[in-house]
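Hi support team,

I've been running sequence recovery on a batch of backbones for a student project. Most finish fine, but this one hangs at about 90% for roughly twenty minutes before it completes. I'm not sure whether the input is malformed or the queue is just slow. I've pasted the structure tokens below so you can try to reproduce it. Let me know if you need the job ID as well.

Thanks,
M.K.
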């Protein structure tokens, strides 16, 4: 409830909203149990990786560089183009956001004045305004650190370290991009926060499609926990009612700790991000009241309903099989990438031209993307008919490492070779270093080998 005069919803509302529609700011209490300790280790491995990756080089190239101005992405030493963005998307899908829970939330707790570390650092002796200022300064510093790390993926660490040492006036655009990124990070982690998980992240939507009643979820054991009763209520309850109570003591520790603000006792909800904080919180309470752990645990809806626990079922096989197939395709595409991409297109304008000596000329556009780390020279040739002559402004065509070049070539031949107005030939490219590419092509000419345009 809030003091606003707005009409209040009678139905259940989002966990991050008050009934009058205003924002309900969540300040989840940390439950530092067994699951949390494992998550901390994993989160810091991921944060360390995210920070280190721009500095790691493979075969002389950055491990990951998303060079948007040049429209080239380097992943694990392989260069991708925007046309490969499906491959890129498959890789990026695997990345997880851990900064909110393991960087910004700890700062919030430490500067909150009430946690153990907050007291150890003397935060409780500082006024509310002072703590908020410290929190804001730390948020700004972390956001700038994150923005720099993030930008290193796009411009490379060399350019970034050069910019950091120079005056912003020497690279105003890059400086503005960096400041805007830092401000976006600040707004995201400082204000938008868990809303990302609830309204923006597709995980919850995927979850509702992929799960069935036998899928592993974080769940509350309704049969064991209900009827719930607080110790205060238990004291005044008649004995026969006490016998009907379950193990849940209605302490709400599982709700207070939830980063998305939901009550897991209401059943599986789309907002649940499976963080296990409610498991840690409830296990600690069960230890305290002398009951077995696991009132909230990793389980399935069928298991909770005491239904048959059938593990092997179609989706257990089909989903991993699809994932294996997708990652197999990705690996195959990575390993099987040609040393160059070649595009052959017909010239713009008339399909062919008749030269003064009576021969027919076809204009062909050739585009070559050198995907290797070395400069290459590509020889262009045409084969498949008698008396074919190729004229190119530059042959072989030099293409620097990772670069794209195009050229226009002309293929000349006698008019008599065109019986039905076309002649099948092969445009051949090779770089003299193992790469060769044969591209079937149809030259156009006069029908019956006579006449011109
Ligand atoms: S933490 Fe456990 S005992 Fe407390 S309300 Fe949640 S489910 Fe019940
Ligand atoms: S596992 Fe789900 S319900 Fe439990 S604390 Fe995390 S988000 Fe909340």
């Amino acid at each position: 409830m809030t003091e606003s005069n707005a009409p209040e919803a009678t139905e259940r509302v989002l966990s991050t909203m008050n009934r009058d529609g205003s924002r309900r700011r969540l300040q989840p209490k940390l439950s530092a149990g067994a699951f949390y300790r494992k998550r901390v280790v994993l989160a810091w491995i991921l944060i360390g990786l995210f920070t280190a990756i721009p500095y790691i080089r493979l075969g002389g190239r950055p491990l990951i560089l998303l060079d948007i101005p040049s429209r080239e992405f380097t992943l694990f030493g392989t260069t991708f183009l925007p046309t490969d963005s499906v491959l890129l998307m498959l890789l990026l899908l695997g990345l997880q956001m851990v900064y909110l829970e393991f960087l910004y939330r700890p700062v919030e707790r430490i500067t909150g004045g009430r946690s153990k570390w907050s007291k150890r650092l003397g935060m409780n002796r500082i006024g509310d305004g002072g703590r908020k200022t410290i929190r804001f300064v730390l948020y700004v510093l972390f956001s700038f650190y994150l923005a720099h790390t993030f930008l290193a993926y796009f411009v490379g660490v060399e350019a970034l370290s050069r910019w950091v040492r120079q005056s912003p006036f020497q690279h105003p655009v890059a400086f503005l991009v960096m400041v805007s990124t830092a401000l976006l990070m600040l707004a995201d982690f400082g204000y938008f926060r868990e809303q990302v998980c609830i309204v923006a992240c597709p995980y919850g939507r995927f979850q509702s499609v992929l799960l069935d009643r036998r899928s592993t979820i974080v769940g509350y054991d309704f049969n064991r926990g209900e009827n719930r009763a607080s110790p205060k209520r238990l004291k005044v309850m008649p004995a026969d009612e006490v016998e009907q109570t379950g193990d849940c003591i209605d302490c709400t520790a599982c709700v207070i700790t939830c980063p998305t603000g939901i009550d897991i006792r209401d059943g599986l909800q789309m907002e649940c991000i499976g963080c296990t904080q409610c498991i840690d919180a409830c296990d600690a309470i069960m230890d305290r009241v002398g009951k077995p752990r696991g009132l909230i645990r990793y389980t399935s809806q069928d298991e909770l309903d005491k239904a048959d626990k059938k593990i092997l079922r179609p989706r257990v096989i089909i989903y991993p099989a699809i994932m294996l197939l997708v990652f197999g395709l990705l690996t195959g595409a990575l390993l099987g990438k040609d040393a160059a991409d070649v595009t052959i297109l017909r010239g713009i304008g008339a399909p062919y031209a008749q030269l003064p000596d009576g021969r027919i000329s076809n204009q062909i556009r050739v585009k070559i993307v050198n995907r290797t780390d070395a400069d290459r020279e590509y020889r262009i040739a045409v084969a498949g008919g008698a008396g074919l002559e190729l004229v190119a402004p530059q042959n072989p065509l030099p293409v620097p490492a990772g670069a794209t070049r195009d050229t226009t070539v002309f293929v000349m031949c006698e008019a008599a070779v065109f019986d039905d107005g076309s002649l099948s030939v092969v445009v051949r490219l090779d770089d003299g270093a193992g790469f060769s590419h044969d591209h079937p092509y149809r030259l156009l000419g006069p029908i019956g080998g006579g006449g011109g345009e």
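--
Follow-up from support: It reproduced on our side and the slowdown came from queue contention, not your input. Confidence is low (pLDDT under 50) at residues 87-95. No action needed from you.
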